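Lecture notes, continued. The same structure-token format from the folding unit now serves as the input rather than the output. Read the line below as a description of shape only.
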């Protein structure tokens, strides 16, 4: 599996004009996959600072860009009816000409739930909801007319070894985990074990990680050795510091040559 480089541009503390320019720059630089996130408030800095909704921006990303694949890290399963989510995903896929990735997870940020009137529940209940909704999403995608332009890749985020990685093994094309290389190596093995249990080829699931700080880019070789082939960095908020990501792109090109 070829190495890919992603860029996450969280829509906090940024104007739409700044985000739009960031998407265009990501495509110009040759980044493989572009991401936003699914929150209603900033996670860092001024808690009531500038922020935009995720799926509306995904549709805009589809129209603004031409080559790059894109999705969310990750949409919160709790915020949208699964049938509606599938329909919106299919529509964004058509707007983009078949470049959309459905990134989804069980949710965790309590402020979003409380402020927008969603039932927060518990971590286990939110995982049960994700588990129940994945077949509904896939079933609706198969029924839509017109259908998606391709089999839309599903990315699932989270690292729980007893439930989340089992859901990944059953439904995901991409897994997004977190941690240092040693942690990811261990969790990749757990995911491989789940794949064996559910009858899935582990090589069919791309493994990805968000590198929270540019200093982690220096560990790219270690992440690769741990089984991670998609490394995701950020140019900051607003997106402006592209230098470290350019170095990561050069590393990708050397590895893929």
């Amino acid at each position: 599996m070829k190495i890919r480089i992603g860029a996450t541009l969280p829509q906090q503390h940024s104007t739409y004009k700044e985000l739009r320019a960031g998407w265009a720059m990501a495509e110009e630089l040759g980044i493989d996959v572009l991401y936003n996130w699914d929150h209603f408030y900033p996670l860092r800095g001024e808690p009531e600072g500038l922020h935009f909704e995720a799926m509306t921006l995904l549709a805009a990303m589809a129209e603004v860009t031409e080559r790059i694949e894109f999705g969310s890290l990750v949409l919160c399963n709790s915020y949208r009816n699964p049938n509606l989510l599938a329909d919106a995903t299919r529509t964004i896929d058509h707007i983009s000409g078949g470049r959309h990735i459905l990134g989804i997870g069980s949710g965790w940020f309590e402020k979003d739930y409380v402020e927008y009137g969603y039932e927060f529940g518990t971590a286990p209940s939110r995982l049960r909801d994700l588990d129940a909704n994945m077949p509904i999403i896939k079933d609706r995608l198969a029924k839509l007319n017109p259908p998606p332009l391709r089999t839309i890749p599903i990315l699932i985020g989270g690292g729980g070894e007893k439930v989340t990685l089992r859901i990944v093994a059953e439904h995901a094309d991409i897994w997004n985990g977190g941690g240092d290389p040693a942690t990811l190596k261990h969790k990749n093995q757990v995911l491989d074990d789940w794949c064996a249990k559910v009858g899935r080829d582990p090589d069919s699931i791309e493994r990805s990680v968000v590198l929270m700080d540019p200093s982690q880019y220096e560990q790219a070789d270690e992440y690769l050795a741990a089984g991670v082939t998609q490394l995701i960095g950020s140019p900051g908020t607003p997106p402006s510091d592209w230098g470290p990501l350019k170095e990561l792109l050069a590393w990708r090109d050397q590895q893929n040559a």
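Point for the exam: The chain is about 45% helix and 15% strand.
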